[in-house]
Amino acid sequence: MAEGHIKWYDDKKGYGFISSETHGDVFLHRSGIKKFGHFGFQKDDEVTFEIKETPKGIQAVDVEPVKTI
Questions:
Q1: Residue 1, exposed/middle/buried by CB under 10 A (0-12, 13-18, 19+)?
Q2: Where are the domains of the chain?
Q3: Per-residue pLDDT tens for 10-67?
Q4: Core-most of 12, 14, 28, 44, by most CB within 10 Å?
Q5: 2-65 domain in CATH 2.40.50.140?
């Protein structure tokens, strides 16, 4: 499971990017979202995700917000 934060996400367009120290910028499509935060995804929200190899590069799947106490 990889970790990163939302670089940007446009709910109307249905995609954005996650910034990860390990993987760099990772494409995020709405189909890869497992669970949103309370207000959807906002810039700098911390998330966990899996990496999927696609013909266009890596993509984030099973994306969900990091649970904070």
A1: exposed
A2: 2-65
A3: 999 999 999 999 999 999 999 999 987 667 889 999 999 999 999 999 999 999 999 7
A4: 28
A5: yes
- Residue 60 CA to residue 27 CA, distance in Å, equals 6
How much of the chain is in helix, strand and coil states, percent to nearest 5? Answer: 5, 60, 35
Q: What is the dihedral of CA 40, 43, 48, 49, to 10 degrees?
A: 80
- What is the token pair recorded at 5? 């934060």
Please name the residue that has the structure tokens 């993509």: 59
